[in-house]
Amino acid sequence: MPSRLISKVLSPAIWLWLRSQVESIAHLAFQIAGSDRQILTGCIPGVEVTAQQAVYRGIHIAQVALTAGEIRINLSQVLQGKPLRLLAAIPIEAEVQLSQADLNASLKSSLLGQALQETLLPLLRSSLLDPHTELWGDRLTDFHSPELVLQGDRLIVTLQLMVADQSIPFTLRTGLVAIEGSRLRFDRPEWLPSPNAEQGTPLEAFEQYEADLGTEVNLRQLRVENGHLFCQGRLNVIPEPIQS
Q1: What is the DSSP string of 125-166?
Q2: From CA 92, how far away is CA 54, in angstroms rounded?
Q3: How far is the C-alpha of 59 from the C-alpha of 62, rounded, in Å?
Q4: CA–CA separation, 119 and 107 (whole Å)
Q5: pLDDT in the model for residue 2
Q6: Please, are residues 144 and 116 in contact by the beta-carbon 8 Å criterion?
Q7: Could you tell me whether strands 90-99 and 59-72 are parallel, antiparallel, or unpaired per DSSP bridges?
Q8: Helix (H, G, I), strand (E, B) or coil at 222
Q9: Are 55 and 25 spatial neighbours (Cβ–Cβ below 8 Å)?
Q10: I need a surface site. Which of 9, 70, 162, 234 has the fewest CB within 10 A?
């Protein structure tokens, strides 16, 4: 049976805090572990969270399951009716699932859209589009209309490249692999002459590229399967700075 502190005070505060972290959400559920004596020290021993159809900073997520422990909060202020606030960084175990539709909707976000732009444009400039025609360097100024398809264990990216005054279609097929938990690498990246082509041309520049995920992330599993992207690992949630 839930304690009075958890059911009457802490649960609503946690719900409001979780809800404030996302732009929208279809389903949110959580369970708090710990006794009143433990929680009165200002440290929640454990919380399990599940959510569906959430949008976080423009990133659409089909399903997510989070587990965290030793969560230090401003309990005295919460008891006075003030918003819950984290007092220290907390490690979170996370399992995240994104569908193909989620990924394409997320491309409209500044977070993923900018990351894609900053990653792909330099790599595209140093690659070869057509074995017979070099079109790269400064003549490649931008790309637009990116679309993602999850096929088997691979990710297919189609783009329209702006080369001088031409719009040229480009298709990249690649896998994704996590390296030592904090770096992301393309796996067998290749240019396809058409989106449905069975064979492509290896892209050396893409093979050599690694994306740094930062020290706060430890990605243990990353795979594409059944039209979804699955991620599992640990990340540290850093408290927001106190506004003066």
Answers
A1: HTS-SBTTB---GGGEEEEEEEEEEEETTEEEEEEEEEETTE
A2: 17
A3: 10
A4: 13
A5: 47
A6: no
A7: antiparallel
A8: strand
A9: yes
A10: 70
End-to-end C-alpha distance for the chain, whole angstroms: 40
Compute the chain's Rg from CA coordinates. 22
* Residues 146, 112 contacting (CB under 8 angstroms): no
Q: Give the DSSP letter string of 13-25.
A: HHHHHHHHTSSEE
Lookup: tokens for 78: 């919460």
Q: Strand pairing partners for 61?
A: 54
Are 229 and 243 in contact by the 8 Å Cβ rule? The answer is no
The answer to whether the CB of 228 falls within 8 A of the CB of 97 is yes
With 0-12 / 13-18 / 19 or more C-beta atoms within 10 angstroms meaning exposed / middle / buried, residue 166 is exposed
What is this structure's pTM? Answer: 0.86
Q: Report the candidate in 68, 89, 10 with the shortest Cα–Cα distance to residue 42.
A: 10
The tens digit of pLDDT for each residue in 28-49 reads: 999 998 888 888 888 999 999 9
Provide the mean pLDDT of the chain. 88
Mean pLDDT of all residues in 178-187: 93
Say if CB 100 and CB 224 are below 8 A apart.
Answer: no
Task: Kindly give, in sequence order, each residue whose CB lies less than 8 Å from that of residue 88, ignoring residues fewer than 6 positions away.
Answer: 72, 239
What's the CA gap between 11 and 47, in Å, rounded? 10
One-letter amino acid for residue 28 of the chain: L
Q: Which two tokens stand for residue 101?
A: 């539709």
| β-bridge mates for residue 31, sequence order | 48
